[in-house]
Amino acid sequence: MRKVYMEIKRIEDLSDVCLEQMEGTSEWYFCKQCEDDFCDMYEAEEIINNNGEFSGATCYLIHFPDGEVFRPFEMRKNIYIENPVFDNGRIGFLEVDFTMKTITIYHYIWEEKKLVTLTELPLALVEDCYNLSLKSTPLMLGRDGNDGKYEVIWPVRKDLRIGDRETLMFRYDEKLYFHDWYENPEYHEEVVVRDLNTGLVLERFSGNIYRMPDGSYWRV
To answer: What are phi and psi of 54, to 5 degrees?
Structure first.
């Protein structure tokens, strides 16, 4: 019997990181890296509020199938780079600079290894960084404070009333797709589709919906 050897590709210059596939594309993976123990953005904000300084968190991109590593950002103190978002062939990044008290949204043009600034906002626009994240497509910055509303911060500013258990999954044009669940009496999942401009429910259906690596959506 012919022996089959496992093919292993060595990704150079990366260690002690976890690769994650970027939703909506089969080409891109990413990994987060922190100087100290890993933390999310809200925890980084708390560290700064308590200690005055955060060591920094950045993000690297890994392209499939060649394994090339891209480093759009350097590690810098008091700056947090959130997970990237795939946006119609471009990669969106969210940066929070706690020293300058700014929120910056970028497109990364990977062919040119160049960051393009889409907008810079004052950090004071948000109460805190809890659940602050980019969604697509197209890019949108929002925040879910688990208080019965979803805050759209950019490119428009709106507060949308939502259910207590709703969590935003993604945006598709002018529609927002939320995941909802309840136990009555058994566990049940639903998708709630809301209008971006009014927050009104356009559709509600049982099950879930997934954004696949080829950009399509599967409903189950």
So the answer is: -125, 140
With CA atoms as reference, report the closest residue to 80 among 123, 17, 21.
123
* 106 CB burial (10 A radius; 0-12, 13-18, 19+): buried
Residue-wise pLDDT for 137-176, tens only, equals 999 999 997 788 999 999 999 999 999 999 999 999 999 9
Question: How far is residue 93's CA from residue 134's CA, in Å, rounded to a whole number?
Answer: 8
pLDDT tens-digit readout, 102-144: 999 999 999 999 999 999 999 999 999 999 999 999 999 999 9
Residue 122 burial (CB < 10 Å; 0-12/13-18/19+)? exposed
In one-letter notation, the amino acid at residue 26 is S
- pTM value > 0.70: yes
| 205 contacts: CB under 8 Å, gap ≥ 6 | 190, 191, 219
Query: Where are the alpha helices (H) located in 40-155, listed in sequence order?
Result: 41-51
What residue type is assigned to position 159 of the chain?
D
Based on its alpha-carbon atoms, the radius of gyration of the chain, rounded to whole angstroms, reads 19
